[in-house]
Design brief:
By secondary structure, the chain is an alpha/beta fold. It has two domains: 199 residues, Glycogen Phosphorylase B (Rossmann fold, 3-Layer(aba) Sandwich); 178 residues, Glycogen Phosphorylase B (Rossmann fold). The protein is 45% helix and 14% strand. Helix 12 links the parallel strand 11 and strand 12. The radius of gyration is 21 Å and the shape is globular. The C terminus is likely disordered.
């Protein structure tokens, strides 16, 4: 089987983890022919060795503006597909902004679009009318783009059900491929012997700055924790210091008198973020909307207790492995984090539950890879039952025993 992986839309955040994990597995797979197109932004994290390990690797130029995010896929991907003539095209995350001739699978990760109740509650505060109208037009355009591919791929049943309901897409056209930590993350983690600092508590916030990540909750949370914790603490972000979002957090910190509790390591390469987990006492992700996030399985894999939002997607993806809080309540977040940091037995019990949950409910990177291949085969045979597909068919993926 010949497959073209379209990572032309991947620029940052958890999508980078997914793309690099899939490329790593594809590079080691000799039973199929893998071609990959990566964005200029993703290309910076793609090792030169991939140029020789894959059947083909196309590095697109960096986009100079938001408009090129729309035009680049239409400009570069159709000619690339005609040259390669793949059995299937797998666009890692859409909207794809182009339509493949081959069987086309597209990943969906725009959580805001399937949580209108959360979006409306937060977006109408301090947002100009014209911005709301512009976003509504963009959302309608994006929604149409997701109706064009043959199949969509999501990472949880919660997202599949919401996507089907809010977009009017037949659930039979939506495959579920559960997320996992990447092979690079696990390998890096195994070689790190660092420990959290002994002079202060460190709470990792390993995500990019997006509105739905709700990072503005953290400064007021820190202000409340400073009133009760006797030991110094810091929230450690992964946001560049030049980012407007980080500067807004710093202003909040100054206003509330907690700037010393806010730190950032800037953008970390995928392999380096494992060290932040190892050097932290807890992980905090107060996200409002999520299709899936690598933070959850990475926290479980690293053995760091997690505090996150009490919302349906988090409940499915974390079960008993996390401590849940109202993502709009600094008081609830401060109480949960303080209790976790000061009760070593409770923190260890949560880590034990997380380890079990990871084994029982998340695939290993190898199992996820087999599921991805199986999904591509199923998509090809559904649409092209009379077209022969070359290459070996993988055994169905199984959960960890």
């Amino acid at each position: 089987m010949k497959v073209l992986i379209d990572a032309s839309q991947v620029a940052g955040g958890g999508a980078v983890q997914v793309a690099l994990a899939m490329m790593t597995q594809a590079a080691a797979d000799t039973d199929h022919e893998w071609h990959v197109a990566v964005s200029g932004e993703l290309s910076d994290q793609v090792d030169a060795a991939f140029d020789h390990k894959l059947a083909g690797l196309t590095r697109l130029p960096k986009r100079r503006n938001g408009y090129e995010r729309l035009t680049f896929p239409r400009r570069f991907m159709p000619p690339l597909e005609r040259r390669i003539a793949p059995d299937a095209v797998y666009t890692l995350f859409g909207p794809p902004y182009w339509q493949a001739k081959a069987v086309h699978l597209v990943g969906f990760a725009l959580g805001r679009m399937i949580y209108p109740e959360l979006d409306q509650a937060d977006s109408h505060q301090n947002t100009a009318w014209w911005r709301l109208q512009a976003r509504a037009l963009i959302d309608r355009f994006r929604r149409r783009q997701f109706h064009r591919p043959d199949y969509l791929v999501v990472e949880s049943t919660t997202v599949r059900d919401r996507l089907s309901r809010h977009f009017g897409i037949d659930p039979a056209r939506i495959f579920v491929v559960a997320n996992s930590f990447s092979p690079v993350f696990a390998e890096t983690l195994a070689h790190i012997d660092s420990k959290p600092p002994s002079d202060r508590f460190r709470i990792a916030v390993p995500c990019s700055f997006y509105p739905h990540k709700n990072l503005g909750l953290i400064p007021p949370t820190a202000a409340l924790m400073a009133q009760t914790l006797s030991r110094p603490f810091e929230f450690c972000f992964t946001v560049p210091t030049v980012h407007p979002g980080w500067q807004a957090l710093q202003r909040q910190g100054v206003e509330l008198g907690v700037s010393e509790h806010l730190a950032t390591r800037g953008t970390l390469k995928h392999g380096d973020i494992a060290r932040l987990y190892r050097e932290s006492h807890a992980v905090f992700l107060p996200t409002l909307v999520e299709c899936s996030t690598a933070v959850y399985p990475e926290s479980f894999c690293a053995g760091v207790p997690l505090v996150t939002s009490d919302l349906d997607f988090a409940r499915e993806l974390c079960g008993p492995a996390a401590r849940y809080v109202d993502p709009r309540s600094p008081a609830a977040a401060a109480e949960a984090l303080s209790a976790l940091l000061t009760d070593e037995a409770a923190a260890q019990a949560q880590v034990t539950r997380a380890t079990s949950f990871l084994k029982e409910h998340y695939p290993s990177p190898e199992q996820k890879w087999r599921t991805q291949i199986e999904t591509i085969y199923r998509a090809c045979h559904r649409r092209n039952s009379d077209r022969p597909i070359t290459g070996s068919r993988p055994a169905p993926a199984k959960r960890n025993p």
